[in-house]
Sequence to fold (349 residues):
Amino acid sequence: MVGAVLVKNGRVVGEGFHIYDRRDHAEIVALKKAGKEARGATLYVTLEPCCTTGRTGPCTKAIIAAGIKSVYAPMKDPNPAVAGRGFSALKRSGIKVHFVENLTQQAQAANEGFAKWIRTGLPFVTLKTALTLDGQIASRAGTTTWLTSAASLEEVQRLRHQVDALLTGIGTVLADDPRMSDRTGEPRRRRLLRAVVDSRLRMPLKSKLVKSAKGDLVIFTTQSADSPKARALVSAGADVVRVPAKRGHADLHAVVRELGRRDILNVLLEAGAELNGAALQAGIVDKMILFYAPKIMGTGGVPMARIPSKWFPKSPVLKNISLSTSGPDFVVQGYFRDVYWNHRARRKN
Fold:
């Protein structure tokens, strides 16, 4: 996710952003709009210009050829194989390069999914949930309780639009029969993948997920992928993937590895207490977004995550917390770890 603006004599002469389907990077879009006026202009771009040939040619070559005099950017390419090389190429050509450090964190957040995936081969997992002030997500197990406002529901759709996959557990499917869809109406680079952790393969064939499956539903199970139920699900359009069992449940590390193998960069975890707790204990969650309704549930409700109290001393601390409002609700966002910009792990090809 990259944006670029060309400025000359205090006037914007070109701007653009990266749209995957159109292939051109943000810098190229801006240069084409500026035309001859690009010569002598200053380029402001949210990511280090690329210097390698992939789906497109190197942006550094086009920037140099256009006669850009200086470049301002707040972050290096997250790919450790090329990070810094684009800046170096521009400097060698005589272009002044300015690293805007005070905007680095904001720029990195826009590409946190790509940063993790390119370095580790794993998707960036965000746990999203709605809960009351006393930390409960439903009045009782197996039921749906609407907690947050229409504004928050709209914000959740925006979050869904930004990710490659939604992940939930079979408990949520059995209780809610969700569609797990992106209802923004905005165009997508590819279909939203709906992923379900279903260790015992209890997915109903008449569920909305299965009935709407068009190559965009994957079910992770510990059961045989050749069982009659699995074959029926596959015939209905679902993909059934067997993963190893860990303490009687699907190994969530195997689940995220498979999603990464499918080039899934961002996953939004929308689940119930069981899967939320398992995901937190497994350490697969990178970020949390909590929508708090200004309400009290009282005793007997369902907690956000079912986790043994003995785990508390090992519980990671949410960092880089931000607070905002969404209608009458308030939203807490934070990270469990640094966003992989300096992560030592390397993607295995």
The CA atoms of residues 41 and 108 lie 25 Å apart. The longest helix spans residues 150-162.
